[in-house]
Structure to design on (327 residues):
């Protein structure tokens, strides 16, 4: 009986995946609904300005995108995933378990998570503690905002937001629920968003949340700043901890609910699926994500110049994640 050494077996698997992958000549991208508009804009520009096909971009949520991305190597699996929060260490391990061992991380810029409603509705100025009191499963579960604080409107608490598979939901729970729980007098360990109708999961499509807010001006929505920016004629953002959700306030770090945005490259597909590295380079170009790039007009908050150069260099060289990113 003969045996194949592990190294030889790995080489055979990669070769087989590469051979299979040649059947697809269009980049497939999955992931965050927040990054979706930016990724789509880059994909359309890439399709117009190069000989490569326009990449297919799907909005699956950050968590859903990671599951698809980390499922394996080969044409049946996506090449890039977008995320509105950093890949978790558990997802990195899942990737490795499934043979996705070489991954490059790119931070494209910043975004704020806004709490907004339709213009014509009440104007809100909230603290993170007030949001926690209103939405925590472990809290008093008030039914109207004035029960949270007499200074707030006497209207029903109704907040439309993303599901647990969304990176925006992850960031909202971390930056609002966990940061505000202690000041709200609520036990922080195990804190969750209530599920009795005050918080309504509206899916991964942030445009759907926007349309529902227009139909109900008393409802609030939770989504990325770029959607507020693109719908500023119809929506108004709430102050959080006394700070307005504006481009400058997020860029300067003054707005309290802000986070980094990412995409991840499956390096084993580079050179197999045409155009992956070229697409990534377009994404991290001065023309796209730079301080005067076309993504800024869509609401992206750019990286500082020195950080932008570092990330662009990592993308160009396909610098691999090491697993020490969470140390």
């Amino acid at each position: 009986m003969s045996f194949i050494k592990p190294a030889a077996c790995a080489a055979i698997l990669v070769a087989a995946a590469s051979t299979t992958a040649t059947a697809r000549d269009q980049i497939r991208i999955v992931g965050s609904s927040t990054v979706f508009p930016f990724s789509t804009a880059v994909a359309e520009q890439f399709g117009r300005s190069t000989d490569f096909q326009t990449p297919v971009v799907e909005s699956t949520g950050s968590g859903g995108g990671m599951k698809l991305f980390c499922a394996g190597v080969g044409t049946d699996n996506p090449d890039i995933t977008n995320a509105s929060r950093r890949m978790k260490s558990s997802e990195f391990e899942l990737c490795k378990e499934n043979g996705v061992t070489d991954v490059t991380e790119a931070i494209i810029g910043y975004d704020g998570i806004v709490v907004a409603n339709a213009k014509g509705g009440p104007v809100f100025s909230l603290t993170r503690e007030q949001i926690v009191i209103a939405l925590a499963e472990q809290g008093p579960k008030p039914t109207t905002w004035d029960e949270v604080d007499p200074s707030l409107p006497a209207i029903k608490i109704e907040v439309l937001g993303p599901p647990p598979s969304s990176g925006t939901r992850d960031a909202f729970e971390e930056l609002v629920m966990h940061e505000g729980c202690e000041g709200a007098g609520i036990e922080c360990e195990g804190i969750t968003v209530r599920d009795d109708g005050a918080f309504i999961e509206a899916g991964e499509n942030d445009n759907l949340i926007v349309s529902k807010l227009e139909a109900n001006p008393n409802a609030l929505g939770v989504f990325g700043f770029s959607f507020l920016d693109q719908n500023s004629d119809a929506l108004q953002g709430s102050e959080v901890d006394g700070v307005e959700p504006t481009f400058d306030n997020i860029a300067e770090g003054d707005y309290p609910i802000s986070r980094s945005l990412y995409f991840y490259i499956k390096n084993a597909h580079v050179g197999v699926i045409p155009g992956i590295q070229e697409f990534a380079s377009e994404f991290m170009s001065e023309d796209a994500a730079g301080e005067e790039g076309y993504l800024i007009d869509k609401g992206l908050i750019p990286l500082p110049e020195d950080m932008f150069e570092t990330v662009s260099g990592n993308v160009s060289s396909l610098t691999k994640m090491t697993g020490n990113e969470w140390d």
User: Anything to note?
Assistant: The chain is about 35% helix and 15% strand. The two ends are 45 Å apart (CA to CA).
